[in-house]
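Model it.
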Amino acid sequence: MSAGGEPADREKPLPVDAVVFDLGNVLIRWDPVTAVAAAVGAERAAAFLSDEHFDFAAWNATHDAGRPWDESELAAIEAHPHLEDEIRGYRTHFALSLVEEIAGTVEILRELHAAQIPLLALTNWSAETFPVALERFDFLDLFEDIIVSGEEGVAKPDPEIFEILQERIGHLGSLDDCVFIDDSLANVAAAQESGLDAIHFTDPERLRHDLVLRGLPLRESGTLDHR
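Modeled.
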């Protein structure tokens, strides 16, 4: 298969040992604004999340890599005491950041499961907040295994997490014969470097199209705008 593209031979699709899904903004719509706004209101939440001096994305990524929340909150508040309510509010109201399931992708997941395709998830997520998702979204039970970066202490796109994936998927096959789906271009590139056939997720219909081209047993969609 060509990296991130279409199979070289559509008539003879290559066998797929497993399909590996990212979770956030692939199967679960995540929006931190909603959680922070519950504590301080929408205007302050938007300002907080776009504050270049704080850098929410970088701070949140430390939790994905395993940093304890109590430690990171205290350090952040010490450095930015005027943002204490925003900093504490995000974790307090974290459940609200999980806006909804992405129905079209969940439908794909259920079809693959019904066809007995091995399914795994590889997600950048804090070990402390991931139980919130497990309690809410029953489709997570369809995965044979879920690799949570916060539990492993390393997050995408670090190559080490794909080595962990290889260890966990070894009984099924190799990364070379697995399809990986992620909404982050950086993670897709890292997955390709590790040997995975990686798909950049943009929307469920495009994903369905890409997986059908790879020979996976999904119903074809007639709604995709071919460009």
